[in-house]
Design a protein that fits this description.
heterodimer; A: alpha/beta; 6-stranded mixed β-sheet; 10 helices; 13 strands; 33% helix; B: mainly alpha; globular
Amino acid sequence: MTHHSSRLLTQDLTLGYGERRVVREVSVAIPDGAITVVVGPNACGKSTLLKGLARLVRPRGGTVLLDGEQIHRRPTKEVAKVLGLLPQNPIAPEGVVVADLVGRGRHPHQGVFTRWTAEDRAAVEEAMVLTDTYDLADRAVDELSGGQRQRVWIAMALAQGTDLLLLDEPTTYLDVAHQVEMLDLLAELNTRRGTTIVMVLHDLNLSARYADHLVALHDGRIVAEGTPDEVVTEQVVRTVFGLDNRVVQDPVSHTPLVVPVGRHRPRRPVAPDPQADQAAATSQENR
Amino acid sequence: MSAPTLPVTTTPVEQPEVRPDLRTATRRPRRRRRLVLGGLVLALVAAFAVRVLLGDYTFTIPDFFRILFGEQIPVSTFILMETKLPRAVLAVLVGLAFGAAGSLFQMLLRNPLASPDIVGVSLGASAAGIFALLTLGLRDGAVSLFAVVGAVVISGVVRWVAGTTGGYRLVLVGVGVAAAMVSVVQYLLARSNTWDVQLALRWLVGSLNNVPWSTIGLLALALVVLLPTLAVMARSLEVLELGEEAAAGLGTGRHRTDALLLVGVLLTAVGVAAAGPVAFVAFMAGPIARALMGGRHSLLAGALVGAVLMLLADHTAAYLVPDVVLPVGIVTGAVGGPFLLWLLARGAATGRTG
């Protein structure tokens, strides 16, 4: 395991709603400049953990540290200059145009009486260029397709100009092509700008492909943490998801690929042939 | 092998080196906003003129200004300065307060039904005001103070019982509390020895009849403080309307929502203290302003619509039935009821509530 620095980390973090404890004594360090993906079954607390990292849920126990300070002790607007959050279902106000919505990401940088500065405009322009939404600037957000709209939201989060960006299931409601497009976009941002990205994803295989660091959560606790190769094993997937599975190598990215077994029997049982798998992988490589 | 060669119809479009200014992208909405606000100011001036100059006693515009600047004309001076002008000014002030408060509530709570006159804020102010007046025997400023405290307490109760901001839960709790407040007002009126129809109309229905200049001055003073406060705080509305979580991510926490709601409660309360709980003005102003703005929320447009509504409703109330000056709340109630039904029917048809 490589040593890395972490501006954002939790220590024995416990989060909950009412009587229910959803996240239990989680200590996790988010590696700087990397893509961290939190995975786990429904209701395992992954969304809550992300909200906790973004200071949206007050800890029941433990702390969240941002740059060595307790995140809840810091002025929320100051935190917003360093750490951005894109929630799962942000609301696009009726009739708002793209440029206006993206501009709202500059809110933490603006005071009560300060006007729109050149710096604000540059940040918004850059965010729209990076997300390929510049040509949509004068379109109403509610007229856009799901994929376009999600790019606009990402643009807003980018305009915020934070070093850390937290995203709660940024690929929900998108078809598979747009899911890949969205994750490619985030991977590019990570490479180009060095933005630390933390996201919750549903799809284990896409998570393994895009994550530098994977955190597997089950029942509010971390079950496994590390690189996709370390985390996505048949053993861990069985423990976390309760799913009988095989893990093979993704022929495109060479990351682990989970193949569920299930009770349904294939119509034409074929004996596993590692040689064929290998051949498929190499042919994909030369693509 | 023998794939037909397709004529090349698309040529790669070069990305323009100089990108257009982003301001051009928001030009159309900004122009619409300016047009609507300008139109509303004109409508407000026109409605004010109609209310003051027309009716069963008409004034010419030169006469109006001559009297305004101190010339004494028998009868005319009295009618203008003691009945028509105070009513019109009060209508504008109360309309601005209710319109702004209503739009603010609907925007923050994301529900067109969550306006202060529906969720019990107005009637809370009303009940506390009439309690101070009849039971405690207080007058003027002290009554207004009670109305303000009453509104704050009642909205606190609604917020606490509902447990959340937004959603139908808050509306349901608010409607229940509003009903309870009506019965409090009725009980206090029924118990008092000094049963006074004008008084009952003011605190139950809302009325602009016989309001002294001193009360109007007090209301104006309160608005001079509250409206600019709201204007300064309104900056965070453009973030809050993206949803609670997105707003928190942008550094605008829940306490900001509560602070804004408090300003809305105070605006409602000072309006009620002067003219009573005029029904549905706060409720109607927001959706009308939004329709004019093409779906966008606007507190300023909401306030202006509220003022225009109040003036038109009061003019109608004064001259609808010959020789009877109805309380303005009866007219707004009569218009607001169908408006509520229309809003609900439209929501049912399109699957949305605003």
